[in-house]
Design a protein that fits this description.
Rossmann fold, 6-stranded mixed beta sheet, 7 helices, 6 strands, binds guanosine-5'-triphosphate, binds magnesium ion
């Protein structure tokens, strides 16, 4: 009697989604992307960067899975912890059914780390400019110098990055080390200096929200996901409409339309942003 009444915890969900998703429209968005034609280039190049283990390679595979309708592993994925599993700069193409390629490509990079290990910031900046040749092996100790083999001194428009995709794992945002943060900031500043569009893909949403873990369609009603996106926004200083939460394929053996839709929708936004850029990009 007369004890302190605990206030019930606030509900974990908004009454209605704060961002509209037309679940069930995977085919429409897929077709739209398949019909996309960039103006001045054969391929729009998307550079994928982020902390070690954030899900960069998994994201590239997830995009490919969504188009192929099956689980693929073009980009090798590592375990959790340790140093970066991806060691080389590699372009990933997405095949059409006739074996030609879709007009966007992804460049995977070595993960960033707080210490001296991991990709060197200057090498990521080299990649933005298109200075890194295919298969360049990242060297944490020293970035590629302009007179070394493997350095492309006059990159074509197509060699250059059109959009920088920062991958941030939802479960690690609040734990981000200041060293990694400084590296991300330096890359972001270099990209801004080049007037390059930038977005954040927030991965591992299943690890921070049980609602979303059970039903990916709750992604935009989950308060936790919105909070995590706001943290991403604060860290990199990008507005919310440049942040896309996704769950990457990591344990599934078949593709799922709802996961695909979220991934393809993010790609569609990236293509809009990058295509605007391809019209204004200077050689
Ligand atoms: N639960 C969950 N796990 C994920 C997700 N995305 C990636 N993973 C797992 O996270 C681990 C690291 O994924 P990678 O794709 O290798 O990450 P990366 O950023 O390429 O890592 P490095 O190349 O080592 O820098 C793997 O065990 C993946 O299966 C996701 O959305 N949800
Ligand atoms: Mg990787």
């Amino acid at each position: 009697m007369g004890g302190i009444q605990a206030t019930p915890p606030p509900p974990p969900e908004f009454d209605r989604p704060w961002r509209m998703m037309h679940w069930g429209s995977k085919d429409v968005i897929e077709q739209k992307l398949r019909n996309f034609r960039p103006d001045n280039v054969q391929f729009v190049r998307i550079l994928v960067v982020g902390e070690v283990g954030a899900g960069k390679s998994s994201f590239i595979n997830s995009v490919n899975n969504a188009f192929q309708g099956r689980i693929t592993s073009g980009a090798l994925v590592g375990g959790i912890g340790g140093t970066s599993f991806t060691k080389a700069y590699k372009t990933h193409y997405i095949q059409r059914k006739d074996a030609s390629h879709l007009p966007f490509v992804f460049n995977d990079t070595m993960g960033l780390e707080s210490s001296e290990s991991g990709a060197h910031v200057q090498d990521i900046i080299n990649a933005l400019h298109g200075f890194l040749q295919e298969a360049y092996r990242f060297n944490p100790a020293s970035p590629l110098s302009s007179n070394a083999p493997g350095y492309r001194s006059s990159p074509s428009l197509e060699d250059q990055t059109f959009c920088l995709v920062n991958i941030m794992a939802a479960d690690k945002i609040s734990l981000m080390d200041s060293g990694v943060f400084r590296k991300l900031q330096a890359i972001r500043e270099a990209a801004s200096h080049l007037n390059m569009p930038q977005v954040i893909i927030m991965t591992k949403v299943d690890l921070v929200c049980p609602l979303v873990h059970h039903d990916i369609k709750k992604i935009y009603t989950s308060k936790r996901i919105k909070e995590k996106m706001q943290e991403c926004s604060n860290i990199l200083g990008l507005p919310m409409n440049y942040i896309f939460p996704v769950k990457n394929y990591h344990e599934e053996i078949d593709t799922e339309d709802d996961m695909d839709l979220l991934i393809l929708k993010a790609l569609d936004q990236i293509m809009h942003i990058a295509a605007d850029k391809s019209c204004t990009h200077e050689n």
